[in-house]
C-alpha cells in the first residue's frame, strides 16, 4: 500500500457530496489518490467541489431517492468504494413529529441508503473484485436523545444494516462498515450550533470537548476504504470524542 496515496487505483463514489461531511469525504478521497465520483442534487455545489478537487474528481447530479439512480449504480462496474453519506435530520419532540418529517427521514436515511448499497453490492458481486461500503451513521445510532426519535431510529437501522451486510457480503470480499460521528459542524447543524445553549449541551456530552469537523469523519472514511482496513468489517468507527463511552 502506498501510504501517501492509500486509495490509489480505486474509484470512490460519495453520495451527498455537495456539502459538509460528503464534501470532505470526496476531497480527502481524491487527495488519497482515488478517482472520485461525487453525487449531489445541486449543480453549483458540485461545480465548486470540482474546482477545488481537480481532475481526480468527477461530478454526477442526481437525486439519490430515485429509482433511475439506483439502476445506474447497479450497472456501474467501476465502483470500488461506496461512501453512503446522503441523509438529513429534523429536531422534533416525539409528540410533534409530523408525517412529512417521518417519511423524509425514512426515505433518505434508510430506504435510499439501503437501495444504493444494494445496487452497488450487486455490481461488486457481478465483477468479482471485492470492494468496500461505508455508511455514514451517527453516535445517535448507538444512543438515544430528546427530539431525535426519528433520526435515532434511522441511524440504529443503518448500524444494523452494516452488520448484516458485512456478514452476507464477506463471501464476496466486500467489507461493510459505518462511521458514527458526534455532532459535526456543517451547514445542516450551523443553525443549532449558533444557539449558545445548544453548543454548551453539545460540549457537555463530549469528553474531548471538541465539536467534530467534517475532516474528522473523512479521515476515518479514508482509513476504512484503504487496504489498511482489509480485515475490518461489520464495525462502527465512532468519531465522537468519547460521547458514547459514558
From TrEMBL:
Source domain of life: Bacteria
Molecular function per GO: carbonyl reductase (NADPH) activity; L-xylulose reductase (NADPH) activity
CDD domains from the UniProt entry: SDR_c
Entry coiled-coil feature ranges: none
InterPro entries, alphabetized: L-xylulose/Carbonyl_redctase (IPR051737), NAD(P)-bd_dom_sf (IPR036291), Sc_DH/Rdtase_CS (IPR020904), SDR_fam (IPR002347)
Signal peptide per UniProt: none
PROSITE patterns from the UniProt entry: ADH_SHORT
One record GO biological process: xylulose metabolic process
Transmembrane segments: none
Entry keywords, A to Z: NADP
Subunit and interaction comment: Homotetramer.
PANTHER family in UniProt: D-ERYTHRULOSE REDUCTASE, D-ERYTHRULOSE REDUCTASE-RELATED
Family affiliation: Belongs to the short-chain dehydrogenases/reductases (SDR) family.
Name of the protein in its database record: 3-oxoacyl-ACP reductase
Organism: Bradyrhizobium macuxiense
